[in-house]
Structures are given as C-alpha cells and as structure tokens.
Amino acid sequence: MSLLSLDTVTASYGATQALFGVGFDVAEGEVVALMGRNGMGKTTTVKAICGMVRAGGSLMFDGMPLAGRPSHRIARLGIGLVPEGRRVFRDLSVEENLRAAARPGDWTLQRLADLFPRLGERRGQRAASLSGGEQQMLAIGRALMTNPRLLILDEATEGLAPIVRQEIWAALTGLKRDGGLTILIVDKGLRELARVADRAVILERGRDVWTGDFDALSPEIAVRHLGV
Amino acid sequence: MSREGALNLVVLAGLVALPLWAHLAGETFTVTLATRAVILALAGVGLNLALGAGGLVSLGHAAFFGLGGYAMGILAFHAQSMTPLVDGLLPGTKSMPVIWLTTIAVSALAALVIGLLSLRTAGVYFIMVTLAFGQMFFYFAISWNAYGGEDGLSIWVRNGFPGLNTLVPIQFYGLCFAVLALVLLLSHLVRRSPFGLVLNAARQVPARLEAVGLDPTRVKLVAFVVSGAITGLAGALFADLNRFVSPAMFSWQLSGELMVLVILGGVGRLFGPVVGAVIFVALEHWLDGVSDYWHVYLGLLLLLIVLFARGGVIGLVAGRERAHD
C-alpha cells in the first residue's frame, strides 16, 4: 500500500496555475526522486503535500486525505519537510533548533549527532553562525527530530560546496540503509540520486510526464525531460 | 557567569539595597518610587513575554493592567462598603491573595478573548486591534458610573496580606519585590523550557514552525494569555500602591509607556523591563522637577536607544544575547 498517493493534483498561486494534474505514489520504505527543470512544479507539489498551497485533486497520506488540513496538522501526521533554502531558526542554538521540533520516537539528539557529527560538535552554537552546509544539516536534523514516516527534502544540497554535498548524500544513503525511512527527494544531482532513489517522477509544466524505476531513467529520457 | 547574568545580579542587589537604605534613612518617598518601579517592571515582564519572546507588538496591554486595577478596586470597594458584589452572593474582599487570583483569572480570560481575535492578524493590524481593545475598556470604564466613572474609585485602606502590614511602605515594597522576583524566575524558566524555544521559533518564522507540526498561533496565544495575566497582577498591585483606580489605567498612553520601558531596558532580555522601569521612574521623578516637558527628554533617550542600542540598556552594557548552551 502507498504511504503517499497523489492523483490529478492541481494548485494555483492566485490566478496563476502551477500544477495541472500531478499523480504518483510513494510506497513505505521507498525513496522517490521528484525531478524536472526549473519552474516545472516540483516545489509547488511539495507545498501542496504539506498544505502550504491550496490544492485540488486527491492527496492521501496513509489512507487519510490531506486536503483542507492546516500544514502543522499535516506535519503531525508524520510528514517531515526540509524546505528549500537553509531554513533554520537563526536565533536559536543548534540544540534548541532540534529540541523545539522534537517529538517522541527513535530520533534523538545523540542519534542525530552520530548522523551529523558536526552538529554534535556545535550544539551550543547559534544557528545563524553555522556555515551553509551545517545549516542544511540542521534543517534535515530538525525534520528528523519530528520522527516522520515520510521525509521530504526540497533541493537539500543546492548551492553547497561539493564536499558538504557528499556528506549530506552519505547521510541520506545511511538513512535509507539503516532506517528504512520513506523519502521524497527533490534534487537535480542525477549521479547522487542514483545512489539512493528507487524510483523517479519527472514533472513538466505542472504535469507528471514520466514515472518509473530510477534504473530505467535512460540518457534519452533525461535529455528530453531534464535537459541533461 | 555571563556578563548579562552578572548585570542582572547587580540590578537585583540594587533593588534590595536601595529601598532598604531609603527605609533606614527615613526616605519613605524613595521607597514608594522603588515600589512604583518594581510594579511597572512586573507589568513590563508580562509585556516582554508577548513582545520580546513572541514578537507580538501589543499596544493594548493597558487593558490587562486596568482590568487588574479594577478587579482589585471593585473587590475592595464592596468589602469597604460592606455591599455584596452580586446580590446576596459574592462579598468583596480585602485579601490580596484572593484579589490576585481573581485578577489573574480575569486578565487571563480577557487576554484569551483578545488574543483569539487579534492573533488572526499580524503586523500593524495586530497593533491596531490590540489598541482598539484597550480603548474599548478605557471608554467602558469612563461610562461605568457604578464604580466611579471618569473620576475613578478610591480605596480607603490598602489591602492586606497574611503576616504583613502592607501599610508600612517597606513591607509593601518587599511584597511587590517578591512577586517580581518570582515572576522573573518563572519567566526565566519559561524561556528555557521547550515552550520558550517554540515561542522563540514562532516569533522568528511561523511557517517553519508549522513544518515541524506546531501551530504558531496557538503558541503565541498561550504566551499572550500568560503575558496578560502577569500585567493584570501588576495592575492590581499598582492600584493598591495608589489606593486608587481610574480609567487612565486603561489608556493607550499607559500601553505606550509599558512598551517604552521594555524597549529602554532591552526587548526580549530577562531584566530588560526591570532596568527600563527603574530608568523610566527615575526620569519621571527627576525630570518632572526640571521641566513640565520631561517626556521630550524621555523621547530623546528612547530615540538614542533605538538607533544606537538595539538591545536596550542591557544590550549596551552586556552585549548581544548569547544562544543558550
């Protein structure tokens, strides 16, 4: 059974329609890559799932409809979001950022420090004073501290130094291997996604145009829909 | 110990030493001034919870201050005139603990209703809605002739507290100081608690808090209610200090003054309202003797603080607030 299921999802920003019918499923324990060129509706899809933009069509999480729920209630169902950009609480320390989000479950401060040792070393440091990569690790950590059943990462490695990107991808690979966490990941790094993603969904102009196993994502499809 | 912690201790020691010295030296008026400063500091600590920690710029906190004053005034009035509050049912009282509990309940309830409505808005609209509520109470008090209307209500004898003679200025000061110290301790614990962290996060970016499953509006509402209850308690003490309540306790000027003293001392800093209240009362007393237009000097000082010391006097002396480690 699918943990997350979208069917003919539409969404608009005022008079401008951004999604014209997006549909895909994410099964429990699966890692799905949501891909597409810039402006094709990836972030809007994420926002629709998380209740941050009004959406039409069917959005189901664990058999429950998401439409009409405020975004904090959706998060409480077990959807952890790492939003685009380094969205940490800048005036709180690393530990305070994590404690503010913490809910009971397997993820603890110690387990997070094991996943991102840098965060453990800087636990008392103000979040605003962290490097971009460390802030991104903190944003991922904060989402994990909610002990989600589905983790959504929106452009989690964008704009980061290659060495930091590698660190984050290694952590995501570890999450898949050790935790069996269900992940929906928006990213442009084809090579890195190939290490973690089971399946891919490609969006074009607000519609899903290709869905399949990640291994089946041929160079021709990538050139046609992703321009790479 | 941090620089700010040391500064806080110095302020606390000053609030113990100065009134004691004044009492021993027979400077009763100084004790009364210190009591006024401590009570305004208490109101400021309440406002600071909403303004500093929650980012809620309320220009209507005089509503809670006034409600505290009138709750005390009405209960004491019925006790001194020996008339029931509600026909044959509720008597008045001169007992401070009972008055305080009533005050806290009334102010918290008012803050809940005002918060539920005003927190649907943000920014300048929030300021306007809270201001409007304050003015509603102000005009209601003016027209409430049963309790003095525009002339206000005099209380003949200060209310009592078990084991103390509250008519002795230093004893009443000690009581007010103890309440302030207790509320400061509670405020410190709240700031360090998970709720305090979440409130701080809600002030910074509400949308990010929603993404981790927390409702920022509810968090701010709880802070607003606690803030209102503390300010209401300060209002009851203020009315007891003056033995008089009047619609002026609801005025927007008073809301502004509470905000000014919080900004002077340092918004969001634990002892900001305390330092601000001491400076405010000192300026009010000394500058008032120099010029009828002492508010001009206060305004100038406020301007300098806002322009050159964003953390208020506490920030100027102790530097930027550290992350809690």
Can you characterise this structure?
The complex is a heterodimer of chains A (228) and B (325). Chain A has 228 residues and is α/β, with parallel strands linked by helices. Chain A has a single domain, classed as Rossmann fold, CATH 3.40.50.300. Chain A is built from 9 helices and 10 strands. In chain A, strand 1 and strand 2 form a beta hairpin. In chain A, helix 3 (94-101) packs parallel to helix 6 (132-144) and helix 7 (162-179) runs parallel beside helix 8 (190-196). The two termini of chain A are 33 Å apart. The model of chain A has no long low-confidence stretch (mean pLDDT 91). Chain B is mainly alpha-helical. Chain B has one domain (3-318): ABC transporter involved in vitamin B12 uptake, BtuC (Orthogonal Bundle), CATH 1.10.3470. Chain B has 13 helices and 2 strands, in the order αααααβααααβαααα. Chain B has helices spanning 3-24, 28-53, 62-80, 96-118, 123-143, 169-192, 194-204, 206-211, 216-242, 252-265, 272-290, 294-308, 312-318; strands spanning 153-154, 244-245. A two-stranded antiparallel ribbon of chain B has the order 1-2. Chain B is globular.
